[in-house]
Amino acid sequence: MPRFGIQTTFVDGTDIAQWAEAFTRPAATVFLETPSNPTLDIIDLKTVCRLAHGAGARVVVDNVFASPVLQKPLDLGADVVVYSTTKHIDGQGRCLGGAVLANDRAWIDDKLAMFLRHTGPALSPFNAWVLLKSLETLDLRMERHCVNALQVATFLESRPEITKVLYPGLASHPQHALAMRQMTKGGSVLAFTIGEGHEAAYRLLNALRLIDISNNLGDAKSLITHPATTTHQRLSAAEKAQQGITDTLVRLSVGLEDVQDVIDDLTQSLEKL
Ligand SMILES: *Cc1c(COP(=O)(O)O)cnc(C)c1O
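That is the input. Now the predicted structure with pyridoxal-5'-phosphate docked in place:
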């Protein structure tokens, strides 16, 4: 962004004092995601939106992890919400897409529509049709994703090999109360740590039989990944350490399978460690 004259300040989104301090300087736009990828941090949307608006800034929320079924940032004060519809909204590994939502009709018509017209990110009619059909089942799928993910998270918490489980729907999540205020359920994605270094994490992933290794999430199939060497590999060691993306961290997107099959797969893999 610097070549467009845009300066960026990074804050720990969970620390309201850091937000308040950042807003003592001029700010135009806030960009955040909650729950965050891959550590499932929760950012207090109402408070951050209030602080941002006090400083004259617009708030853009990446709501991919929660989906529109579990969390409605526009109702909590956000100005713009963005989705990769490739994730839960399609949710079945069929098509790529994205969506931008906002309350401000004039901004949509004058700024967003013009930007889209000149830069051309348009869905093909077929992808648009697939996504519209997907919306008809999104609510049902999210319900099943959340039931399954909570059971898998509870199972992982009970296993001695797993050193930490991060899932907003678990009472042990450091921001569980906040998560349950601004989301209706915990979502489909969880993360956990195992062993020391990457060895145990790699062995666990490689011995799975049902769960696929993939960077995608929010899919009908359960998908697992090692963020430090895939999605977040380009961060420096210091950035990874600061963000809690250790070599021991594994991210699991829980799908729509019979949850016992997912738990059995994790069990057989853990028993081979
Ligand atoms: C996948 C993802 C994106 C990027 O979506 P693309 O469709 O790959 O552009 C952005 N934010 C989150 C949280 C995601 O999971």
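Residues 95 and 127 are 6 Å apart (CA to CA).
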